[in-house]
Amino acid sequence: MTHTRIKELLNSTEYGREVIVKGWIKTFRNNQFLALNDGSCLSNIQVVVDFESTDESILKRLTTGAAVAISGTFIASLGKGQRVEVKAHQITILGDSDPEKFPLQPKKHSLEFLREIAHLRFRTNTFNAVFKVRNALSFAIHRFFNEKGFVLIHTPIITGSDAEGAGEMFKVTTLDFDKIPQNEDGSINFKEDFFGKPTNLTVSGQLEGELAALAFGNIYTFGPTFRAENSNTTRHLAEFWMIEPEMAFYELKDNMDLAEELLKYVIRYALDNCTEEIEFLKNRLLEEEKSKPQNDRSALDLVDKLNFCLDNDFERLTYTEAIDILKHSKPNQKKQFKYIIEDWGADLQSEHERYLVEKHFKKPVILTDYPAAIKAFYMRMNEPDQQGRKTVAAMDILFPGIGEIVGGAQREERYDLLTQRMTEMHIPTEEMEWFLDTRRFGSVPHAGFGLGFERLVLFVTGMTNIRDVIPFPRTPKNAEF
Amino acid sequence: MTHTRIKELLNSTEYGREVIVKGWIKTFRNNQFLALNDGSCLSNIQVVVDFESTDESILKRLTTGAAVAISGTFIASLGKGQRVEVKAHQITILGDSDPEKFPLQPKKHSLEFLREIAHLRFRTNTFNAVFKVRNALSFAIHRFFNEKGFVLIHTPIITGSDAEGAGEMFKVTTLDFDKIPQNEDGSINFKEDFFGKPTNLTVSGQLEGELAALAFGNIYTFGPTFRAENSNTTRHLAEFWMIEPEMAFYELKDNMDLAEELLKYVIRYALDNCTEEIEFLKNRLLEEEKSKPQNDRSALDLVDKLNFCLDNDFERLTYTEAIDILKHSKPNQKKQFKYIIEDWGADLQSEHERYLVEKHFKKPVILTDYPAAIKAFYMRMNEPDQQGRKTVAAMDILFPGIGEIVGGAQREERYDLLTQRMTEMHIPTEEMEWFLDTRRFGSVPHAGFGLGFERLVLFVTGMTNIRDVIPFPRTPKNAEF
């Protein structure tokens, strides 16, 4: 007889049948009630042990964290607190767990402590819920794009191109650090390296994605990206996952519409498919916020916050309009911002984004048409405004508690304007001939954006540290497991 | 009015309506018939241009590769060769394509040439078909595991663990090659590196996957993996994608059943959802094989080969049985194998695998229970056979034309046997304490496997060089784009 997963039993009414369940012991009360979990869902099944007929040596081994196989009868529970239970006939210990040594005892552990034992934290309720939601969001993203006929493109992780300048890069090499080969002039002889030239870990699949979009129309990437930046914050990782759709024949408005539709689709999918997990995470957050001053607590609970996102249009406004709001805002006038907004052209800081989203509009915001000077070379140049100020057709989506979750733009499809901008920004066009070819041969208006996957998971799970929504976070001085 | 994708029009019967189509010109015949493609499907739509009412300067710019927007009437075609067409009223050139310079002219290009212009090869029929199939296979994999309640785990790409020994690794670093920091004793001071220690690109997510499986029950990974090996073959890449499911409470037979079910599911999905693409690839292969001697041609065409896989159980046999077959085989006795099979214990070479699959059984084969000496430390030790020979509960799936497409095993869940094996194989247990914890606390029988994604795509597309099924292949001395 094969074993039945606990999720199935908890939804079953086929009482009286003989079953085998396998899983890990969460608790064992009164020498009688085992709470058993097999990871298939958050809830445990209760197993009733007849301690009189069970060997003393077995009873002793029914400790938190131990793995067991139970043969028994599946019945409606007579006790309170659970609908069904398994009356055990036979208990087999699969793997012991020494209660003196197992770090996950049935009590509250801090998230900091659990991060140190990231290899075991999967077994806690919180991380079971977080990674189930992460899984659901990932699937929802693939389903969304599949329904729309987008083609998934696996853009390269190791790249010989470092022209995008999106951030500091990790080097990839097989050179021996003890004897780095040199050319006669003392420079490094990269001919001896694996790829015959310097290579790095990708910071974005966008440029390669554009190549594919200008053939397939609509494409998306979903892969890991890297930043070698010394940012030790709750919102930054050195290794994180991004989703980067790129669409031929899309202009800025189409781009915004798609991004908003995607975000709503995947949030709704998580609400529909992870009801138990999100309910658990809602209560976890309420509990966590009890220790905070009233003012710092969320106005909405997690479920309400997610529903609020679904029920409201994201606020769309230009950078110029945003600057106007910020300049006249209370925290700016009272000099409560760390960076006071004085002039058009200023880069927005996290405090400004949060003010717009959390205080002013109280909902997700899409900011568009940023000053050209603070945005990347590949964004499409707008007509200068009446005051002659240059902006690009960029759009960033800002979420409450998260800040920027999506960054995108209509791309500069005009060869002359693109190369002129690259020259101005000191980007070597000769290394980017392959990219420029898309503007030489059948160039079309197109647009795309990048969605930071971990930031999305942060938002939907209500967790507050990005290290807690990826299995094994990579941050400065930390690459454990 | 927004534009309509060509795939939709080709399936439509709503004649007489006004439409806008946008895409790239494949050909322009007789100053009258445009074949237009927007990447949404392999087929082009025919656009009929009224050359008398069209400006000469526009007509001249209707060249292969140019991008256009067409306003026109969608009608049933009167001509032969197409069911529907668009009668153009207005033609807008979106992006020119100089016929003197555009490398993709409407003629047959070699795959080698197209590899050099990988940024443009997406626009050919062959690569449109290949990457559509790749996309469908990827989605099918996610759907398969989602339906079964598996949890996707993103295992780390940058790893501080190099213990698995699955192959040569790429180093990841932010150290300055011009001045590698040294300790007083002359060794490299990795404290100055980004992660404070040496790090590499992952060769497999399996070990981290096991951690998650021993909490969630059933998990899978789908991510890039790396080998810094100097293999310039048609089956090896330095960067490739792997799917690695890992299942608690699974034994070897469950593992084989799941792998066979997965492979059949995704092949069926591709046949059902990429009918046009696979038909095209079938004909491409038939064409390619015309230049080969009769004996080297495939016995079955691509579609028949895929269906054959679906209709037959994979042949399952032990390594020991396979050695017996190979020893007595004609090529072994006639010394036609490069590596003659003499004794039990020999590692199987590609020629042996191909003989078993392509000549002896003529179908996919699952080989099990390999000699312990030639397999990894984490595979579960079987009871020694009657002659005292030690084997492990491994399984490899071999496919015609591909060789090993899946490698898997039941894992060694017994702490003592595992650590003993690690010591024998000189794997430092102290660096693997996190992995050993899974055997200390609630260890359970479990199993898993790795599926090489590009090899799967090779098989389903009938392509013969692995560089042609990944957008931008990374191989020794090659990291272009």
From TrEMBL, chains A, B:
Q: What is its EC number?
A: 6.1.1.22
The primary location reported for this protein is cytoplasm
Which InterPro entries does the record associate with it? Answer: Aa-tRNA-synt_II, aa-tRNA-synth_II, aa-tRNA-synth_II/BPL/LPL, Asn-tRNA-ligase, Asp/Asn-tRNA-synth_IIb, NA-bd_OB-fold, NA-bd_OB_tRNA
Task: Give the Gene3D superfamilies listed for this entry.
Answer: Bira Bifunctional Protein, Domain 2 (3.30.930.10), Nucleic acid-binding proteins (2.40.50.140)
Q: Name one Pfam family in it.
A: tRNA_anti-codon
Major enzyme class: ligase
Task: Give an example GO molecular function.
Answer: ATP binding
Give GO cellular component annotations, separated by semicolons: cytoplasm
Q: What are the entry keywords? A: Aminoacyl-tRNA synthetase, ATP-binding, Cytoplasm, Ligase, Nucleotide-binding, Protein biosynthesis
Q: Where in the cell is it found?
A: Cytoplasm
Q: Tell me which residues make up the Aminoacyl-transfer RNA synthetases class-II family profile domain.
A: 131-471
Return the similarity comment.
Belongs to the class-II aminoacyl-tRNA synthetase family.
Question: What name does this protein carry?
Answer: Asparagine--tRNA ligase
Please name the source species. Olivibacter domesticus (Pseudosphingobacterium domesticum)
Lineage per the UniProt record: Bacteria, Pseudomonadati, Bacteroidota, Sphingobacteriia, Sphingobacteriales
The UniProt gene name for this protein comes to: asnS
